[in-house]
Amino acid sequence: SFCGECFAQLHSAKALRRHVAVAIDSRQSEGVPSHTSHVEMCCECSCRPQTIFCSDCNVSHCDRCSADLHRSQTLKHHVRVPFRGVIKIVKCLNHQQQDMVRFCCECNKGVCMRCLAEDKCGGHKFSTFEGLLEQQHSVLKENINKLNKESNRIVDWSAKTSDAIKEVQQHSANSISAVRQVIDSIKAALDRRGTELISQISEMTAHKVHILSHQQQQLDVLNDLIKWIDIESQHITTNISIFDQMRME
């Protein structure tokens, strides 16, 4: 909104001369919304500021109305993000008394009517904040669709992976069962062979013990014979000694 003098001065440029000017009183009487308020109110209750933007409903609500409206099973999965006030009217950074009315797509900032008149952006392309919101909404919807497709692809991949895992687990169970059977068979064969070897070793040990016992008996007989020979040898030696003495006499 401008006073008459400022409007005439700002719209003296050729590019702005065709702008339509409406008196504030007539705007209010005709129901045209005034831009004197810088806070967008909830689209549902109209008594609290907008704080949540729903990309599926394409409207903004306050916290309470957003929660109430999205309680149903159908709406609770809507994508809702904090409302950043893209369409809120804020003050121009260059002219702090003027409201931003356009967004410079190349400078990436908002400008007021005076910036437009003074050509601050050097012929850059401009967009309305409503158009910018629609563009961002379209991008958001596109990204959501991509995410949904990716989510469906992941779900399909997960289902296939789950089936593959089950198949691998089944094969693994069968393989484990087969391996266990082989191990049990080998263990039984080893047990049988071990029993046979123990029996053979026992028999060989008993035979060796019998041989050793017989040899020990023979050694005992030889020892007794040796002792008897020693005794007899001593007797012979004694007799020879007596015989020698008798001969010398």
Describe the overall structure.
- This protein is mainly alpha-helical and 249 residues long.
- Helices cover 58% and strands 7% of the residues.
- The chain has 5 helices and 6 strands.
- The protein has helices at 4-10, 24-29, 63-69, 113-117, 129-248; strands spanning 52-54, 59-61, 80-82, 102-104, 109-111, 126-127.
- The chain has a 3-stranded antiparallel sheet with strand order 2-1-3.
- The chain is rod-shaped and about 185 Å long.
- It starts with a helix and ends with a helix.
- Residues 25-38 have low confidence and may be disordered.
How would you write the strand order of the largest sheet? 2-1-3
N-to-C CA distance? 177 Å
Helix content: 55-70%
The SSE order reads: HHEEHEEEHEH
What's the main sheet like?
Answer: 3 strands, antiparallel
User: Could you tell me the number of beta strands?
Assistant: 6
Low-confidence spans: pLDDT under 50, at least 5 residues?
25-38
